[in-house]
Amino acid sequence: MTTYLCPVDGVRAAVDSAPWCCPECGSPWDLEFTAAPVPLKSLGQRVNSLWRYEEALPLPTKAVSLGEGRTPLVPMTPTVCAKLDFLMPTLSFKDRGAVMLAELALRLGPERVHRVVADSSGNAGTAVAAYCARAGLSCTVYVPESTSPKKTEQIRAHGARLKRVQGDREATARAARAAADEEGTFYASHVYNPYFLHGTKTYVYELWEDLGGSLPEAIAVPVGNGTLLLGASLAINELHAHGLIADRPQLIAVQAEAVSPLAAAFHAGEDDLGTEFLATLKPPAPTLAEGIAIPRPPRARQILRAVRESGGTFLTVTEDRIRVAQMELASRGLFVESTGVACWAAVGEWTDRTVAVPLCGAGAKTGLAI
Ligand SMILES: Cc1ncc(COP(=O)(O)O)c(C=O)c1O
Ligand SMILES: [Zn+2]
User: Fold this and answer.
1) Which residues are placed with Cβ below 5 angstroms of ligand 2, an ion?
2) Is 255 helix (H, G, I), strand (E, B) or coil?
3) Ranges for the Tryptophan synthase beta chain-like PALP domain (predicted)?
4) Which of 255, 250, 356, 229 is nearest to 314 (CA)?
């Protein structure tokens, strides 16, 4: 098995015995793993799920699969296409990462993993609950009290224990981490565990395959903790390193104006979300985009660097724009949850370059935001 690597101080730890974060500095782990080139021409013969990109995956098996991935790419305008990532087994893009974490927990074995815990504003928890059910793993999901009832219902339906935590998303994460420190517990964290990012990166491998071995000029991504963004960045780097794409697309990171610490840091030229900088920001306001309402993302430094290195930028969207975008998409036949419309709200009208927009959570999860 591969090794965890701390991006801050270079500490390494074996995957089968490591704590959930770097023991020296508390940073989320990266994975010491080099993807091999994926052969575009032979993909047609492969399994119809994200496991088809086996050369690029750190876990080359598919015991836990629910057929996730291979979501449709639909032209919306002459320059904008939408990738329907809400058409996943649990109705959001989080399946891409959750399947990796469940597969990893299974491979670590019953002596090491007695139960899995996760924390989430809803979609990641739902996905982890589903893939744990598929893997036969006991699972507990911590969610903020305010999480949509449809998401909590789904988590329970998959047989996971649900713990509602009073307070914000950070309070939920703290409660899960306290549980994660207990013996025999695997913390299936979409934020701290880098296997999740090696799952979300298949979003870009699919784009690349469906566009015949190329990528659009820009890839828009909603950013809370940045798991889709960092996965996309990993894939772009891998494809570029292997000479499988000529140019790197710009990453266009999208946040809700109400909770946009990374957008503010990016435009202020900051390379991290330091305490001093955070103190200068307006406090977060309520937003319809609950899935990206993250005031202090632990991977802030990596996210800011990835967007800068791509030549992209950060955009923010207002609550009104989110409402209108959800109606606009629904009127074109696509019912998407309010977090999942943020990118369309930000770049749907662009005409100056080709751009892919993820519609990454199903409308049925939250209903209409009016
Ligand atoms: C539908 C949807 N879009 C975007 C995001 C943002 O993902 P991340 O926090 O990894 O940036 C989430 C996270 O829950 C989500 O549920
Ligand atoms: Zn460290």
Assistant:
1) 6, 8-9, 11, 22, 24-25, 27
2) strand
3) 64-361
4) 255
For 41, 288, 336, 339, the CA distances from 368, given in Å and listed in that order, are: 42, 10, 9, 11
* 61 Cβ contact partners less than 8 Å away, ≥ 6 residues apart: 103, 107
Residue 289 CA to residue 176 CA, distance in Å, equals 22
Identity (one letter) of the amino acid at 160? A
59 contacts 103 by C-beta, under 8 angstroms:
yes
Q: Does the pLDDT at position 140 exceed 70? A: yes
The closest of 183, 202, 326 to 256, measured between CA atoms, is 326
Reported as a single tens digit per residue, the pLDDT across 305-362 is 999 999 999 999 999 999 999 999 999 999 999 999 999 999 999 999 999 999 999 9
Average pLDDT over residues 250-266: 98
Quote the ligand 1 centre to 110 CA distance (angstroms): 30
Question: What does CATH list as the number for 95-195?
Answer: 3.40.50.1100
Domains 73-92+197-365 and 95-195 share a fold: yes
Task: Report residue 236: phi and psi, to 5°.
Answer: -60, -45
Cα–Cα–Cα angle for 50, 56, 61, nearest 5°? 60
Which atom, in ligand 1's list, is nearest to the CA of 190? 10
Averaged pLDDT for residues 214-239: 98
Q: Which residues line ligand 1 (CB under 6 A)?
A: 92, 121, 123-124, 222-228, 291-292, 294, 337, 339-340, 360-361
At residue 167, the pLDDT reads 86
Q: What is the mean pLDDT of the chain?
A: 95
Second CATH level (architecture) for the domain 73-92+197-365? 3-Layer(aba) Sandwich (3.40)
Structure tokens at 215: 């990528």
Q: Measured between alpha carbons, how far is 370 from 364 in angstroms, rounded to an integer?
A: 14
Q: What is d(CA 143, CA 160) in angstroms, rounded to the nearest whole number?
A: 12
Q: Where are the domains of the chain?
A: 73-92+197-365, 95-195
